[in-house]
Automatic annotation (TrEMBL):
Organism in which the protein naturally occurs: Anaerofustis stercorihominis
Source superkingdom: Bacteria
Name under which the protein is recorded: DUF362 domain-containing protein
Listed Pfam families: DUF362 (PF04015)
Domain DUF362: 38-251
InterPro entries registered for this protein in UniProt: DUF362
């Protein structure tokens, strides 16, 4: 039976509640022994403060690290591999992690710049993976994710944080995030979800997780999550030594049955933990104490985009472009409508059966998949594109971006 400690937690109670949660599991000394080398993996996917709901609070990580040191750990390494193209060390510094590291007992590490160990595996989709050596060498691995909705995987909690979030930039780009560029999976393979859903399980099942401590002080949901989206004051923390159970409880709080979240169900099917809420002992507060109106970023909706924009949706395997594009369009709805120019935005690459408007209009190809179809018009590169500025610039409205960012619009 899985056991999950679930506690209400205000932003000023983090240290006290982390202690209480781990005590409810039997105390940190159940997991950390004298002279252990501990690796803590937060979620610092980008340089956004934890109060945005995108990243793990450094206070939570410091609380866990101090408990490990008090239990006799030799050293705690806070290790991160931020989103593709983002300098992990810079992101951690921007998020305040430099203030919790002392350079001796608690040190920061950019996993992207460390050594990787190649492992041949018999995964659902991956046959070989690269795991950071420091994670293979660690005596104890503590995963400290955030509680967030996710466009492509419904939720991102612990299992996903310790899969994509430990991969090199090259693996993120070529094995995990170019899903729409590959041929669609067979019907049989699709029963286990998308390529990403299965790759997450392939990587996570080949790594150790001693404990998961979830930062649910602020969650993130809605269009653009897990990077943009809307913050939600979930005011909770969770802890467990069962990585599937804690993701199952977190999914429930985010409005999903974990059996419908492919990467969690795949992990359960592989025997990595308990998914059935009836077989998980929840200690502390009750799941029913946490009720939120979650705007599912997974259901990428075109409601709320400017009325002069027509989206030609050619996505089959992947919704990442659709998510970031609808986020930018809805954010600038009024300004783009004022331009009064009909615009087609192409996303994905399966356009064969799409009926296109025949009037004169601007054509924008958003993302590398759509880029393979360019025949005139603007192109916003990326997989998915990461620059809001580039998208706005491509429709000839850079001033919208500049005003939004408080930049000088005359330049
Ligand atoms: S370009 Fe966009 S739709 Fe294509 S694989 Fe990348 S993120 Fe997915």
């Amino acid at each position: 039976m899985g056991k999950v400690a679930l506690l209400k937690c205000k932003p000023n109670q983090i240290k006290e509640k982390v202690h209480k949660a781990l005590d409810l599991l039997g105390g940190i000394s159940e997991y950390v022994k004298k002279d252990d080398m501990v690796v803590i993996k937060p979620n610092v996917l980008c340089a956004q403060d934890h109060e945005t709901g995108a990243t793990t609070s450094p206070v939570l990580v410091k609380s866990v690290a101090d408990m490990c040191l008090n239990a006799g750990a030799e050293k705690v390494i806070v290790a991160e591999s931020s989103n593709w193209g983002i300098d992990s060390m810079e992101a951690m510094k921007e998020c305040g992690y430099d203030k919790i590291a002392d350079g001796e007992k608690i040190v920061l590490m950019d996993l992207k710049k460390g050594e990787f160990v190649k492992k041949d595996i018999d995964g659902l989709v991956l046959k070989s993976i690269n795991i950071p050596k420091v994670l293979c060498d660690a005596d104890v691995v503590i995963n400290c994710p955030v509680l967030k909705a996710h466009t492509m995987t419904k939720v991102t909690i612990g299992i996903k944080n310790l899969s994509v979030g430990i991969s090199s930039d090259e693996d993120k780009q070529h094995s995990l995030h170019r899903i729409g560029l590959y041929p669609p999976l067979s019907d049989e393979m699709e029963k286990n979800g998308s390529w990403l859903d299965q790759a997450i399980c392939d990587i996570n099942s080949n790594t150790n997780t001693t404990l998961t401590v979830v930062d649910g002080i602020y969650g993130l949901h809605g269009k653009g999550a897990p990077l943009f989206g809307d913050k939600i004051n979930t005011n909770l923390i969770m802890a467990s030594d069962d990585r599937v159970s804690i993701d199952s409880v977190g999914s429930k709080i985010l409005g999903h049955d974990a059996m419908e979240v492919h990467h969690i169900r795949n992990s359960y099917n592989r025997g990595m933990g308990e998914i059935d809420l009836d077989k998980i002992e929840v200690v502390g507060d009750k799941i029913s104490d946490f009720k939120f109106d979650i705007n599912q970023s997974y259901n990428t909706s075109l409601n709320g985009i400017p009325s002069n924009v027509t989206v030609i949706n050619g996505c089959k395997n992947c919704k990442a472009c659709l998510s970031t594009m609808t986020y930018v369009l809805s954010r600038h709805k009024d300004e783009i409508e004022k331009m009064n120019i009909p615009i087609n935005v192409y996303v994905g690459k399966y356009f064969e059966d799409k009926k296109l408007p025949s009037d004169r209009r601007m054509h924008i190809y958003y993302g590398n998949c759509a880029g393979s179809h360019i025949y005139g018009g603007g192109f916003v590169p990326g997989c998915p594109p990461r620059s809001r500025r580039q998208f706005i610039q491509s429709i000839g409205a850079l001033d919208i971006y500049k005003q939004d960012e408080g930049l000088d619009t005359d330049r």
